[in-house]
Amino acid sequence: MDTTSNADADLQLARLAGAIAEPARARMLNCLMDGHARTATELATVAEVAASTASAHLARLKEERLVEVLVQGKHRYFRLADDNVAAALESLMVVAGAPRAAGFKPNTPSRLRAARTCYDHMAGTAGVALHDRLHAQGWLSGLQSGSYELTPEGAIALESLGVEVDAVRRSRRRFACACLDWSERRPHLGGALGAAWLQLSLRRGWVRQELDGRELALTPKAQREMPELFA
């Protein structure tokens, strides 16, 4: 056993946990879960701290590679570093909530429970249902492992709907995976394919996204055109 490697991993885990555990930083990270980038001033307001304190918090989050900075002209924007960070935060929300038991009923606000973004893919009841229906249609494989691949039928089907499967495969991130949903306590579709599906759904008008927030709304068009996935 490589005790040095284990010690390094333990130390890094402790550092990450410490970065997330501070309440102001946790509020900032939760705010960024909607996939939108925000300024330090906006995040200071969310975290209920002074601008100087927010800068120190964001420096810590950046140091731990939990957020990244986008520079546009004179402006600096912060967003989650990648979908792995989003998936970890989503799972921590599950751990932070009440344990699932018989008769489990989430206390998530109904508008967010129905459909919302998890970083850049679809979550909530609609996201979980989509995940299950993609498997039921035989379009995804790997249900037991949680690391998914498109079946030949699935690749053809999604290409016909407008997903550029080859481009999704070339992206520098995990192709498709299970992301544990914090309100449903069951997986929704994450990874590059989940992100591509959300963007397709927005372009086709199957879902609408609030300008500021995580809420998504399924449209009647989704139920008319794609009842096998959205009904």
Question: What's the layout of helices and strands?
Answer:
Blueprint lengths: L2 H19 L1 H9 L8 H8 L3 H13 L3 E6 L2 E6 L2 H14 L13 H5 L1 E3 L2 E3 H13 L3 E2 L7 E2 L1 H10 L3 H6 L6 E4 L6 E4 H14 L2 E3 L6 E3 L1 H6 L1 H4 L1
Rg is: 19 Å
Report, as a whole number of angstroms, the end-to-end distance.
Answer: 51 Å
Strand order of the largest sheet: 1-2
Class by alpha and beta content: alpha+beta
> Which residues form runs of ≥5 with pLDDT under 50?
98-104
How would you sum up this structure, described in words?
This protein is of the alpha+beta class and 231 residues long. 52% of the residues lie in helices and 16% in strands. It contains 12 helices and 10 strands. It has helices spanning 3-21, 23-31, 40-47, 51-63, 83-96, 110-114, 124-136, 152-161, 165-170, 191-204, 220-225, 227-230, and strands at 67-72, 75-80, 116-118, 121-123, 140-141, 149-150, 177-180, 187-190, 207-209, 216-218. Strands 1-2 form a two-stranded antiparallel sheet. Strands 3-4 form a two-stranded antiparallel sheet. The protein has a two-stranded antiparallel ribbon with strand order 5-6. Helix 2 (23-31) packs across helix 3 and helix 3 crosses helix 4. It is globular. The termini are far apart. Mean pLDDT is 86; it is low at 98-104. Keywords: DNA-binding. It comes from Variovorax boronicumulans. One of its GO terms (biological process) is response to lead ion. InterPro entries: ArsR-like_HTH (IPR011991), HTH_ArsR_DNA-bd_dom (IPR001845), HTH_Metal-responsive_Reg (IPR052543), WH-like_DNA-bd_sf (IPR036388), WH_DNA-bd_sf (IPR036390). Residues 5-100 form the HTH arsR-type domain.
